[in-house]
Amino acid sequence: MKSVMSGAKNDDEFSPSAPSFYDVLSDRGVRWIAFGAGGIVVFLGLYIIFEIASAASPAIKEYGLRFFVDTRWDVSRQEFGILAEIWGTLYSSLLALLIGGSFGVGIALFLSQGYLPNRLSQIFRLVVEMLAAIPSVVYGLWGIYVVIPALRPVAAWLHEYFGFIPLFSTSLSGPGLAPAVIVLSIMILPTVAAISQDAFAQVPQKVKEAAYGMGATRKQAILKVILPTASSGVMGAIVLGFGRALGETMALAMLIGNVNQVSLSLFAPAKTLASLLASNFPEAGQVELAALMYAALALLFITVVVNAIGAYIMSLSKKQEAI
Amino acid sequence: MNMNASVARLNDSVGDETQRNEAEVAIDAKINSIYYGKFRAVRDSHVPIRKGEITGFIGPSGCGKSTVLRSLNRMNDLIPIFKMDGDVHFMGQDIYAPSIDPVLVRRHIGMVFQQPNPFAMSIYDNVAFGLRINRFKGDMDERVEGALRQAALWDEVKDKLKQSGLALSGGQQQRLCIARAVAPGPTVLLMDEPCSALDPIATRKIENLMHDLKEHYTVAIVTHNMQQAQRVADTTAFFSVDISDGQRCGHLVEMGRTNELFENPREELTRKYIRGEFS
Amino acid sequence: MAGMQNLEQTQVFNLARKPYNRDTLVNYIFTGTLFGVAVIGAIPLFSVLYMLITRGSSRLNWDLFTQLPPAGFMSGGGIGNAIVGTLVMIAIACLFSVPLGVMGGVLTGSLAPKSRTARTVRFIAKVMSGFPSILAGVFVYALLVVGLGTYSALAGGIALAILMLPIILLTSEQAVSMVPQRMKDAAFGMGCTHGQVVTKVVLPTAMPAILTGIMLSIARAAGESAPLLFTALFSNFWIRGLIEPTASLSILIYNFSGMPFPNQIELAWAGSLVLVLIVFAFNVLSRIIGRPRY
User: Fold this and answer.
1) Is A42 part of any domain?
2) Predicted pLDDT at A2
3) SS3 helix, strand, coil % of chain A, rounded to 5?
4) Which residues cross the membrane (chain C) (predicted)?
5) Which residue in C has a C-alpha nearest to residue A56's C-alpha?
6) ipTM value of the model?
């Protein structure tokens, strides 16, 4: 201790020095590496889009916009179109959003509005997180051996007595839209629940107090004040959940039946863009490959647009909070 | 009449006599303890709120005056670890009895908070909120206008009722919250430091407003500002806090007619606080 | 103003609960609905876990980890090569995505958070995090599988890396930007270069949170199957090199799930159990690491 003290006073062996050559080099090095990494990320992101687009270009030239209105996917005649897949993707995702979205928002309310003691709601949050962590193939397997068998008698009954409604116009023979939608809803539920929980947490305490102070019941406070105040965050959650549903692949490839047809029936097999890629890619020839790349590009475009809308809505909710 | 006699008589009037004459008291709170978890926040406070008057709660920070106020309409129920030992009588009923619906209590005892907290809705919808949840069937426009007039806000907002309540200035927002609180016709109005977030001019407007509100409602107001209590309150309750082994426990020290309490307090503690010897 | 003279109000209200009052009733129904929603929402998790444990644990023995997958009508066998394949591809993915992601996060979170470069990087990372995972497979197929002429562990690993990269970058950015400015100021004040501030103060302070992000991204990648489907493909043999088709747990489950043989279906369940355990393990690890130390 003493030597250090005296050293600081008059020992001139040590004094602050200019940064050494090594210091300067490492400083530059860290910057270069960081900027390099950033550059690679940007390049990669753009290159992914470019690569898929250029691989798709033969098909774009060949089929043009007709690709989006043609329901045929005929390898032998080399006629390709993805109308059925777009229909299947949007239809399954919207239905899943209806179920998974409302359950997700409901669970977020249940966990954030004081219905449960703190510890219990933490356990429940863990359940939702585990739901999110289970891999998509495992859901697919579960769908095949649990959901489809459980659904079959329900579907048969609905078809028999309500077959005149287009939704139930076919019977469930195995894989089909309904089991795929159920599993898909489970997969987007945690996304919607997590993001809307954040949105509810951002509702200021003073606003909740105002509602309860007026003598609102919990239901009135939630539906009339808390939900409207958090509405843009909840909307963002739902749109981002939609983006997640659009790109989901494996569970759908295992459960939806992979038949390209446009049908309203919940029990008919269908096909989505992602499941088309999953099932046809490995054995595709040159021409079909280009068509698949075109389909991939369409999927990319749809999801990027949906996610951009979601991000925009979320940014609105952040702005609102700032006021 | 000498001073001491008048003080004694007055203390009687707010203490024992009020109990004899129940019609005079709107809310009679006898609080033995308020706990947050294991922490005893308030002890031994008997606070009768007299009908048709403004009762001010003053005292140093942490003395439990806001806690007591919020226990008068069961707002504290929203805090899971809140527990109260005691009873609060309102309209002849103990509002902490198990059979009582706290939601109904809050519909009769309205509240205005420290921070102006209008909902993210139009001015009109803010005021109509309480009427709608009570399923008011009459002339909504008339009721909204009446409430806004009572809150002395009508002339400022009558041309922009459809605009967001959040677009108003802080003082206007607070008056909007008062309008919202009075619109469904509560009996009592609790105000928790309603001016603490406002500038002096807006504060003055609210204080003037309170004299009019007294015509229609029983008011209890927490304030950290002694001058404000002197200006608006008919009766004042002084709370203090005792600190033992790091625990702070608030309690009522004394309560009396405002001018008496400020001019001739019974307790030494009150005298010191009024002289500004601690805060 | 009628009805507002509340002081003269002589009517005494009854404040007791009215169980058949419309508001109270509707409130109860609402509470019940939310409760039901939560219970129904939790059922799938317990059903999946129940199936995994009852169907998967019957094969949870040494053979499962040491044997190769059985062919058609054969009995026995295991999923050893798939477990190894999954781990190898995760390692490859980390090799590419961790340095890029963390340094990218340092750039956008600490070195130049407001620069145009950082904004571009952040934007691209957000866009990439929304890519459907199968598109990573499509891209790597076009780039590497076509280029190398074969499916490979390398291609599978890089496809996973593309999924992990934006997650790691965005969580690292978050972690790095949480380092208090006063800590950085202290280091600058002592004459540190910007590089030293990053390596000696920012990275060590943010490390637990960065590792949390990495663990979460691994947990996500371990369960992914779509990007491996036509990059790594599958193999019935042990891995011998990085440039050959490689087995993975998720693809094994996918392939075996549709087979008509009970033995394979049992293995698919056992594989799912192992896969879920791996994913959960990394999730738990991320929580343990992420606990603040100071």
Assistant:
1) no
2) 44
3) 75, 0, 20
4) 25-53, 73-102, 123-144, 150-172, 268-289
5) C142
6) 0.91
